[in-house]
Amino acid sequence: MRRWWAGIDWSCGVQDMVITDDEGAVVRHLRVPETPAGVRQILEALRELNPTSHRFSRKQVPIAIEDGNRLLVVELRRLGQAVTVIPPTVTARYRGRHGAAVSKSDRGDAYLLADIMRTHPDRYRPLPETSDQATAVAVLARAQASSAQDARERMLRLRSHLGLYFPAAAGAWAGMDRGLRRAEARAVLVAAPTPRQAAALSKRRLYDILAAAGRTRLLDQEAERLRTVFAAPALRQRPETETAMGQRTRMHLAELSVACQQAEDLAEQVEAAFAQHPHNQIYRSFPSCGPLLAARLFCEIGDDLNRFATARSLRAYAGTAPITWSSGQSHAVTHRTVCNRNLKSAAHQWAFGSPTRSAGCRALYDVRRERGDGYAAALRHVANRLLNGLHHCLRADLCYREEDMFRA
Question: Please, which of 13, 109, 141, 382 could form a disulfide with 299 given CB 3.0 to 4.6 Å?
Fold first, then answer.
């Protein structure tokens, strides 16, 4: 039976689409807008490929594209059309196969995408059938992660600025959870952005600031600690320069407060959205898998249970499965760098916290360290075991059980 493949090279406004046959010849080329009318043109072109056969369907023609987040892709998938995403880096590597003089055009890239699908039909799979609810959780979780990263970057800029004139404040909350992003730290610096103002704060004034910022425990001890830190002798800038730097500190604090508030608001929305999904209970049953970390893992894995046929494929996608380099006399097993970086980061965080909450994870970590693995390598083994268990629990619709996960 004759087959066809299609490739779409997207751009702002107009998309180039090329359809090829079994021999790699171009059957159809069209330029369509990213509108409902453009989608209808694409589907009509696919139907016209074999109008006389009642066994042929446009859904049998796979479409390759470089960006799976386009509205065009969303509409095609809603209408049941199979769409495969091929990363631009892969397309660039294939470009030199069609000629020594490498050129680039929208039509040429669309043909190249279709030809990649034609020559390697089993290497690239269509986009997973992720539900609308899961996609919504993913949007919120990624936005929250971006806001949290923005808050960390703004905190580092603030800390760097404080080091120029107020080192006592730069290190006053070092080692504490969230550091200068803590509400009490920001409140104290807003009230006293310069060393002279901070040294003038009384213990009672510090107590009131900490209480107003939401701190409820060990208020007397913390107020006394800060008063001692700020009163200690230290090098200072000249008075007018110090005042100007304090004004800049207030600007950094305002930006940091906005970023922290956005991250906190999004975290609440992420937790509320993921709590409504059926997979929430399974993710939350695993050790050290809190509501936010569970949502971050879920948003990268999705709820299509057929997406990862085996646990190994999930581990490879997360970057925790090793990769082998072998040539001649040389042989090396290293960790993967080409993977889903967001999922890899979440899996590392998951593995980092699990040994303190799971005896099995702790024992596995200790065994790997005794065998000579480094810190990161041992955590990857823990992450592999957790991902294995998560894959099994999702497929079997079961919650985590320590005795089943680490059988003797």
Answer: 141
